[in-house]
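Researcher: Checking consistency across runs. Here is L-ascorbate metabolism protein UlaG, beta-lactamase superfamily again:
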Amino acid sequence: MSYGNGLWHSFVLFCFDPSLRQRTTEITAINIITDTKLPISLVFSLIFIVGCASSNKVTRLTPADAIIKYKTSSAQPARYENLYPGKKDYPLTCQAPCYPPSPALACATPAESCRFVGRQLAIEPTTGFTLRWLGHASFYLQSADGSRLLLDPVSQQFDWPVDWAFTLAGGFFRPEPPWLSANELAEVDAVLYSHIHYDHFNKADIKKIGNQAQYFVPLGFAQHFANDGYDITEMAWFANTKLAELTLSFVPSHHFSSRVLVPYIYEDNDATLWGGWVIEQQGKRVFFAGDTGYSKHFKDIQQRYGDMDICLMPIASYYHKENSNWYRYVHTTPEDALVAAQELNCKVMIPWGYGNNSWQMGDHSSHSALLRLLKMHKTMQSQVPLYILNEGEAVRL
């Protein structure tokens, strides 16, 4: 029995090569029927299978003024690199004691299981943006034009089986954060991801959000989506696009990426890009840093886009007994975040990465990073106003 070698080979590639499926927008019954070597029963089977498949729409934005920096290696696919690699000279480092207790935090035990109860900044709303912190790096953002965005949504644990591997390696299942209602989730217009790490990108959440929202991601990211009709835009550093009245710009961060490791067989270190986002409407800007260490990229962002009205800055995951230099290289300390906020000319800074719904990777405790931030804000006499949210709280700015 002949299966029409050319068509059968194409069909097998279509089924098992996700990148081909995402580039393929249509396979019609006419294409199948015109190959007369195929038995009619197989024809209808293929029509049914392909007809039920729903390939993703993937757009790749790499304009002339964007930046893509690759490592000088022969690895395939090509591996990305930070804009400013190499040893860092940090502007300042906290001197002990770095974690003094604060009356602004009410904690069940020292620096653990806390709520911020201090006096909040009195802010007259001028930007049109409302933000809700959903825990760790996840934010829900509403703009003046009615657009609803999710930033790095992770509603539960890491994707399986990494969640179990994390606990076996000494981690834990975090308390799950307060999340969007079903109605709110259904009304999300766009999802923005900073990078591929499990605490920022969760495939289970993509299923919940569905394919009615648009997805904006770094380069190399689309291959991690199931082929279920998702609208995905991959972007290089400094690329931008429109969403209703919003301008979305993907910007550098100082970090790395990896998701899959099979020793001696497969790894994807730095095969997808990483970064942050500038979200702008009518001259008002929200900056979401993504996971990042301190480097000159913050000054570059300010020079290209101007001052930032709201800065969502990571302040945790910098601590490790044996590898503290590496952890700080890819994660800002609270004082690094304050310096970066000054360089961005942030009108208000909202910290994240710590908290009751964090995994405490690279932290002393759930709220140690916030204690250090409060201390260093005074020590540095920082002029950047802080607005501290508890998980689930929202603010209109």
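Researcher: Does this match what you'd expect to see?
Model: One thing to look at in this run: The chain has two domains: 5-55, 59-396.
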